[in-house]
Amino acid sequence: MSAVGEITAGRNKRSRVRGYAPWKPQARARATLANVEQVLETYQAHLPMSVRQILYALIGRDQAEKGDYEHLLDVMNRARRAGMIDFEAIRDDGISVIEPVTYTGIEDFHEETAIRARNYERDKQAAQPYYIELYCEAAGMIPQVARGVKQFSIPVYSGGGFDSTTARWEVAQRVVERNVPTVLLHLGDRDNYGDSIVTAWAEDIVAYVERDRPIQTIKAIPVTVALTAEQVEEYSLPTQPAKGSERSGRPTCQLEALPPDILAGLIREAVAGWFDADIYHDHRETEVYERAELLGLPAGGET
Q: What are the helix and strand counts (H, E) for the chain?
């Protein structure tokens, strides 16, 4: 069978079931499912998790090995289709969508406007001495990471554009348009290949900014939040030997190996190092009054 045929056969095996489907898992799948449910319960505050994050959590509990990834994918597929695990608890790499903004009528427009008023939030980065952007290599972790920094109004980007000339230039243009330095927080795997991509990405952006900026104080500041060699050692994260041309380099480690709660703490610590807490709390207090004004409530009234 050709390589393409093997890939197609593998895909067909996992996607044979369509839509919602009842499932009676065998012994191994039942044991895996029970272990997964414990992991999801432990990290409930950090859902959704990617399948690879779940795998590393199971490895940390001595309930799985790296070679169990395909088995875990199959179990997650069948369990979600059978209603045993919520679809929202697991994050796969999805598709990008650009949708037009439309309304069914004026009432629909006013209803959405009311919802926006109830959910009104100030930009917590306004007037801060630095503007922060967060980049995550693992696209499946974006919702989890974004939820953790939402309170700080920090945008989160997928690292899929690290090797894109256009994407790097666009980052630089965002930096140039601001009147404060921009901190580019990075989350990614620990390996020689990944490091070289991130280094090139950061150097490219910095070079664009230095050429295009109107004043010297506007600059891009790349910061690695995870993974670092120290973190791999401190948290005893599983590693594997370097591959191919990297064999002479250090062992590799994937970002998903870091438990979600620890990652969330590292991100909060990194943000705190660049965020002015007094400005942040002023925004929080002011938005209460502004939200009340939008809703026609007494000053400071609760929604």
A: 11, 4
